[in-house]
Amino acid sequence: MSAFHAVRSFVLMTVIVCGLLTAAWSGLKDMPWVHDRDRGDVVWIDTTRG
What we know:
Blueprint: H1 3-29, H2 32-35
């Protein structure tokens, strides 16, 4: 294998890996459970005297 073929294979592998990482990152950042924070239950107390 010549040096050119080795470099070309390395570049192709790098492009594929970067594409897969980008796709995984885009998929994970849009998942609802990533942005969900456990804030507990909200309890509304009516303090007005009626």
